[in-house]
From TrEMBL:
It comes from Coemansia nantahalensis. The gene is NOP14_1. This is Nucleolar complex protein 14.
């Protein structure tokens, strides 16, 4: 389970980092972990329920600007409200809970003998110390505090998601649950629900009624796009006894002239390309001819130079042979 330090660290992350980003290296994994905890954990103690309420508040703060739906947070709030008055005959909300989760939420049920009419608004808060509480049996004051916190979170979520197209499907179950809550809260003189909780239920019912009415009024059935009836063009066929593909038979003179000019431009472009290719081939041939002449002159020059060098080399060898003969004659 999550510890109090983990909840404090998550709240700090929401304050430090940009929670409205679609993908964030810190906030996105944190929201995934919050959704997994709210959707899969079994809240069997007061600390677990209080931690779940804190996680819902953190998720709302993270999505307050982006207004992206987090179904696990809404489902947790719906489950807490339903369990407070014993609406456990069916799975609350559009996202059903497991059997173990519904059994664990049974400790939040407010019975007819759970009266706390003397409690004021300040005493019906959810203190931070409850996050570490291992109690699995709640007093009447604690049950009403959890219910009031869930109702206030439901009001925040309704304000956050009121612009979604699926607002009716998301919050219509909560409206039905609030009607059951208003009828099942203890109303006897000795065992009476606190005025703060009764007022919270009435205020949320009024708010949801207005928002759901506006959402339903904004919906309209799908319709085909309206346009005036278009007449089907009826043109008598035209036959040409001497048809030629070089002649334009378009009845629109402007369009025919435009087509003619485009074809003429294409012919001129092809002719210009051919001329440029011929010029390029001629220039390349001239350059090859000039290079061949230069190579021929260079080869002749080198041949003359080699002939001079060979003649000089022959004279030197002849003189060397003569010197050797004279030296042998003296000996």
């Amino acid at each position: 389970g999550l510890r109090a330090s983990d909840l404090a660290l998550m709240r700090l992350f929401v304050s430090l980092f940009s929670a409205s980003d679609r993908y964030h290296p810190v906030i996105t994994p944190m929201l995934v972990a919050i959704g997994q905890h709210l959707g899969q954990s079994t809240f069997a103690t007061l600390g677990g329920v209080a931690g779940g309420l804190v996680l819902v508040a953190i998720a709302h703060e993270a999505q307050r600007l982006a207004r992206r739906l987090m179904p696990e947070a809404l489902n947790f709030v719906l489950a807490v409200v339903a369990a407070s008055v014993g609406c456990d005959d069916s799975a609350p909300g559009p996202y059903p809970l497991s059997r173990r989760q519904r059994e664990a939420f049974g400790m939040l049920r407010i019975g007819a003998a759970d009266g706390c009419r003397d409690a004021d608004e300040q005493s019906l808060g959810v203190p931070w110390a409850w996050v570490t509480s291992p109690a699995d049996k709640l007093s009447a004051r604690e049950k009403y505090s959890v219910l009031r916190a869930a109702l206030r979170l439901a009001r925040r979520l309704a304000d956050c998601y009121c612009a979604l197209p699926a607002f009716v499907e998301l919050f219509a179950p909560l409206e039905a649950q609030l009607a059951t809550v208003a009828g099942r809260l203890p109303q006897f003189k000795l065992h009476q629900a606190p005025a703060a909780v009764v007022g919270e239920v009435a205020g949320l019912r009024a708010q949801l009624g207005e928002q759901l009415a506006e959402a339903r009024a904004a919906r309209a059935p799908l319709k085909l796009q309206y346009h005036r009836p278009l007449a089907i063009a009826s043109v008598a066929p035209r036959f040409e006894s001497h048809y030629s593909h070089e002649v334009h038979y378009d009845p629109d003179r402007v369009r025919a002239e435009s087509t003619k000019l485009r074809r003429q431009l294409a012919r001129e472009r092809r002719g210009a390309v051919r001329e440029l290719r011929r010029d390029a081939q001629f220039v390349a041939g001239q350059r090859l001819h000039e290079q061949a002449e230069k190579d021929k002159q260079y080869a002749a020059k080198m041949k003359r130079a080699w002939s001079v060098l060979e003649a000089e080399q022959g004279e030197m060898k002849k003189l060397d042979r003569q010197r050797i003969k004279e030296r042998k004659a003296k000996v």
